[in-house]
Amino acid sequence: MAMEAACVLAVVVVVLAFLSSAARGGVTSTYRRSLQALPDMPIDADVFRPPPGFNAPEQVHITLGDQTGRAMTVSWVTPKLPDSNVVRYGLRADNLTHTANGTFRRYSFGRKYRSGFIHHATLTGLDYGTKYHYAVGSGDTASARSFSFTTPPKPGPDVPYKFGLIGDLGQTFHSNDTLSHYEACGGDAVLFIGDLSYADNHPGHDNNRWDTWARFVERSVAYQPWIWTTGNHELDFAPELGETTPFKPFTNRYPTPFGASGSTRPLWYSVRMASAHVIVLASYAAYGKYTPQWRWLEGELRRVDRAVTPWLIVCVHSPWYSSNGYHYMEGESMRVEFERWLVDAKADVVLAGHVHSYERTRRVSNVAYDIANGMATPVFNRSAPVYINIGDGGNIEGLADDFRWPQPDYSVFREASFGHATLQIVNRTHAFYEWHRNSDGVKVVADHAWFTNRYWFPTDTN
Ligand SMILES: *[C@@H]1O[C@H](CO)[C@@H](O)[C@H](O)[C@H]1NC(C)=O
Ligand SMILES: *[C@@H]1O[C@H](CO)[C@@H](O)[C@H](O)[C@H]1NC(C)=O
Ligand SMILES: *[C@@H]1O[C@H](CO)[C@@H](O)[C@H](O)[C@H]1NC(C)=O
Ligand SMILES: *[C@@H]1O[C@H](CO)[C@@H](O)[C@H](O)[C@H]1NC(C)=O
Ligand SMILES: *[C@@H]1O[C@H](CO)[C@@H](O)[C@H](O)[C@H]1NC(C)=O
Ligand SMILES: [Fe+2]
């Protein structure tokens, strides 16, 4: 009897605890997982193995070569010799009828590292929504390698498209799980939210870890475009090594189609894929008033045409809304600079990383504040974006389990687990969003929401 009463009491307490947390707003998941950081996969791990054959092309990756995907830039590294800069491509794997000529470059880092021959070639004049086969490496030798990709469909308001959302990936065993889960969930392209290899966590920023990372992710990024946002781990600013040019490894290895959107630097730009206009911002380049990035974004928001691309998605590494103590408020100065613009523009989603956990917010804004009025509390605003922190790719630094209490009203769901998300745009009014934690089977969804478009179908929920 006493036992029964205790059980009932326990249930009541749990329900009350749940209700009070619901009243405050969001859910802090109680899911238990190991918080222990794992080291990077060993240098001889299977995922880092170079392809067979002398000087075989490796680290193959693609990204858009123009703003909408009628051009694709193919990049690869030949380790020993310059070899050919040519990409052969065509509609049939057995008949690569076209060629694109690229260039190569090398760079050094510190006193010890000299890169292989890094090739970039842009395939132009492609058709939308078409599968192309391509090969890199010299002609008929056994070392040539073949891949394929599908160009994004022609931009249009109701064109479905599925983005993978991955941030802060690194190259641990967790990173490998994240990539495998993303592959199983399937997407057409990845919005990568910054912090790629974490090479800078190794002594002397060991740039061999940039090479291993690129070999590791090739299994996805050679076959579909990844859209790159830069994070702090791309800075590689190391005066102690004589390296004072920020973003040197990143910019040598990962081209972006910045010129096509009128940007003057590879770090901020936009692409228009299917029904989405994706704006990439740089947390680690100047964004104050009158700077090149500020001026570009001001103009770019006027160029967004919601009649053609209804979904306005913004990618930035350092989050503007995060209730995790880790990196707390590091994105604040950029939020102050740009949040009003994004709310005025009715942006749908802002994706961030940097904090190694997962969080999704309500549609809130904090734009009423001026230095004298004290109105600094985020409030619901149906024009405001949802903020998603997806810095949970699984890197060497481990999880951020330092949530602030009480959970703020703006935070809907938060959990310190590794994982990835997908955003499946269905039509101009609806998109389905899912987050997957790695510790579950690949098909298990741990958080999900239907988003309605802020321009075509703004609702008060999501
Ligand atoms: C390859 O494609 C070209 C152009 O369409 C065609 O002329 C040629 O016959 C094809 N070759 C083979 C072997 O199919
Ligand atoms: C590529 O460059 C080589 C050497 O400069 C040249 O011979 C060839 O015609 C070029 N091919 C294309 C498709 O531009
Ligand atoms: C990484 O994942 C792939 C695909 O699941 C698997 O084949 C490979 O063995 C994994 N490698 C390591 C080092 O865990
Ligand atoms: C909501 O956003 C709109 C558009 O930016 C703005 O004009 C309005 O002041 C905001 N409302 C609140 C309560 O912040
Ligand atoms: C858009 O997709 C949603 C979700 O599948 C559906 O309910 C809605 O009817 C669709 N709208 C149009 C105009 O097709
Ligand atoms: Fe970061």
From TrEMBL:
What residues form the membrane-spanning segments? none
> Which keywords fit this entry according to its UniProt record?
Glycoprotein, Hydrolase, Iron, Metal-binding, Signal, Zinc
Signal sequence interval, chain numbering:
1-25
Tell me the domain of life.
Eukaryota
SUPFAM superfamilies, sorted: Metallo-dependent phosphatases (SSF56300), Purple acid phosphatase, N-terminal domain (SSF49363)
Which EC number(s) are documented for this chain? 3.1.3.2
Task: List the molecular function annotations (GO) for this entry.
Answer: acid phosphatase activity; metal ion binding
The catalytic activity, as recorded, is: a phosphate monoester + H2O = an alcohol + phosphate
The similarity annotation says:
Belongs to the metallophosphoesterase superfamily. Purple acid phosphatase family.
- What's this protein's name? Purple acid phosphatase
Q: Which organism is it from?
A: Oryza glaberrima (African rice)
